[in-house]
Amino acid sequence: MMSRQLLAMALAPLLGLFILGIGNGFLATVITLRLDAAGESAVVIGWVSSAYFIGLALGAMLNDRLLLRIGHIRAYGSFASLVAVTVLLQGLVAEPWAWFVLRLIGGWATVGVFLVIESWLLASGDAKVRGRLLALYMISLYAAGVLGQLLLGVTEAMGGPSSFMVIGMLASLSVLPMAMIPRVSPLIEKAEPLSPLRLITLTPTGVVGSFGSGLMVAAVYSLLPLYLQRTGLSVDRIGQMMAVVVLGAMLLQYPVGRWSDRHDRQLVLILIGAFCTLISAAVLWLPLNAWVLAGLLFLLGGGVFSLYPVAVGHAADRAPAGALVRMSQGLLLINAIGSALSPPLVSPVMSLMGDAGLFWAFGAMGGILVAFFCWRRSVRPAPVPVAPFSASTPMSSAGAELAVTEEHVQGATEHEHVEDLSGAVPEVDVAEPLVGPPPPNESHIAYFDEPEAEDDEATSRSDSGIERG
């Protein structure tokens, strides 16, 4: 059971995430609907939506440096304030090119917020409680998304820049829980992602699964509201339908993950891809009413959002113990790249084939994933799963460590001699170890594995696991 001290330490970042997540949950929908109402094409809408995910990818690579330099609380205040400014500016300037730039900056700042919160929770507790902290993180994130979508109709009914004003105010208010807590924050450890080529060598299935998840999740957030609006739904009904999608992701992800713990994860990935294709076909060919569409979108959300954590779990089954953290961070970067490419790739399909082209694209992506996973299964069958599933949210590089537990390390160590595609044992370059001691010139970074501190104050910080701001 988690201590009261730990719960108190986790409360502030989780509350800040919940407040900011309410606005962030329906901002993408507002932007899509506003651009469509202004007569912009699906291609333009796709590129503006893609800017946010490009910002996410850039932030996943760069924002940890600012966090390490100024600390959790000040970093959170900086990133959340920047989110508020970019959103409010979108309410003042309605040009697509300006929204592209603002969404790019907003994505960079938003992933910084998630970096602060995820690294805070990661470092607050040990491996015995991280799973429960992550569960609270997921509940806060998805609950905020559902509530935000339900507020869409209310804010849009006010007209003008009201929606942007509400989202900006929520981003500003999210700073209060972080600023009002005692000035104590946990230590974090810096780690760099592996290169994409190295990741492909280690786990092709994990890379393709993460990339495909990014493609599909970004299309859900960016282009599904456009499809719903062009089918004649009102703004408040669109918000309700998007809330159903997020609710499906929240309720179905954990059962799917538990299922993957008990079966071959490659087989689970194949079935998820086939399931997404089947649901897409049902939307295209079944006679739809509001209830049928809501049920299909609920199932689609559960399938699409389950791809990433199962792919990460499969990769953890294959990875050498020393590469687990950096491999997971690299998969997050791959996921962000897929998210950035999704709107520009899918929106032309909607322009050529009509609004239903979105579900043709979903079906095609699911089919391609099934074909690839089947081929990989025939070439290199998966071992018995050794790393238990833990739900992962692809938001920042530090969040990758949330999925790495003692069971991951033990299981990967036991299977580190599994043959790769060529039949050889995966090798780790001894000359350049994946995980090593900190560079001597980075004394400002606090590492958990330092053997001893230089003075009594440093020793106290190391023993307690916190640093005082």
Query: How many domain modules?
Result: 1
* Extended strand count: 2
Quaternary organisation of the protein chains: single chain
Rg (C-alpha, Å) = 22 Å
Strand content: under 5%
Strand pairing plus helix content: what structural class? mainly alpha
Give the CA-based shape: globular
Q: How much helix, percentage-wise, in residues?
A: over 70%
Give me the strand/helix succession: HHHHHHHEHHHHHHHHHE
Q: In the CATH hierarchy, what is the class?
A: Mainly Alpha
- CATH topology, by name, is Growth Hormone, Chain: A
Instruction: State the end-to-end distance.
Output: 28 Å
Biased composition (Basic and acidic residues): 410-420, 458-469
Transmembrane segments: 44-63, 75-94, 100-122, 134-152, 164-181, 202-226, 238-256, 268-286, 292-311, 323-346, 358-375
Region (Disordered): 410-469
InterPro entries: MFS (IPR011701), MFS_dom (IPR020846), MFS_trans_sf (IPR036259), MFS_YcaD-like (IPR047200)
